[in-house]
Amino acid sequence: MDFVNMMSSIIVSICYFIFCCFSFSFQSTDCVLKSNETDQLALLEFKAKVTRDPLHVLSSWNYSRHFCQWKGVTCNPRHQRVTALLLPSLLLQGLRNLSLENNTFGGQIPDNISHCVNLESLRLGYNELVGKVQGKLSSLSKLRIQSVRSNKLSGEIPSSFGNLSSLEVLSAAENQFEGQIPETLSELKRMRYISFGANKLSGEIPFSIYNLSSLSDFHFSFNQLHGSLQSDLGFTLPNLEVLNVGGNQFTGPIPTSISNASNLMRLIIPKNGFSGKVPSLENSHKLEWVSISRNHLGNGEKDDLEFVNSLVNASRLELLAFNINNFGGMLPEAVGSLST
User: Fold this and answer.
1) Could you tell me the pTM of the whole model?
2) Where are the beta strands (DSSP E) in 86-241?
3) Of 169, 220, 163, 221, nearest to 192 (Cα)?
4) Could you name the domain of life of the organism this protein comes from (predicted)?
5) Does residue 45 have a pLDDT over 80?
């Protein structure tokens, strides 16, 4: 199904006046539409989420007639399945979430999605969307959650994303984004989760990004990023829970300030060029994963694995991987005292 044609018919009809879009159907590939009863239930859920209907447009949406006869609903005459929902200029309002994840929608994100000015959550992940995002979403000032994960989107990350002042979650992993990370992302002061893993990003992570003190999840794995991690990230990111930059070209030491990241749960930095001594992790009691394999860590000295001793209080530890480095010395006895 072409995403532009499908979405445009909905957005032009509804969002131009006040946002009112699907947030219910096509939620998962596991929820395969097996009968037109599913369409009816989806439409009724749509009706239930409309908080204002001054023209009583949806009064005909009830069990007294077939849903294909409901106002604004268009069905395939053969299969009696919904093919379009057209409700223009009817002053409907109430819906603020659009989720079309886990489908096979193709085409580009339509330009007129910018009319959905009340949109708070946009979930378009796990589809086959293509093309550039550009400034299509920059006017959605109320957007808190934006997920376009696992598509085929390309081009640079729009610098206009910095205008999304309410954004808390930006999930765009597994696409084909390229170029550098725009410094304007540091304007997203409410950001908690940012993920651009498995793209084609290059250059360095702007140091201003490390000042997003609300950030808990930091995912930029499997790109072509280089440079070093900011030395004081353990102080500037006090809420950090996940640091995932594996599969890049980072060099330099693991910042010693990481020992101050008391909320850190996953340290994932394999397949880079990090070097030097691994700092103590004794204050990171919530650690679950420590993955530092395939770097240049250690100096072939007897105290290289001293950091392992600092993990004895990490009672949640599930994974400790430090193979293919330059570690010397003996395996500390503390390994026998680590979490089960």
Assistant:
1) 0.80
2) 97-99, 121-123, 130-132, 145-147, 152-156, 169-171, 176-179, 193-195, 200-203, 217-219, 224-227
3) 169
4) Eukaryota
5) no
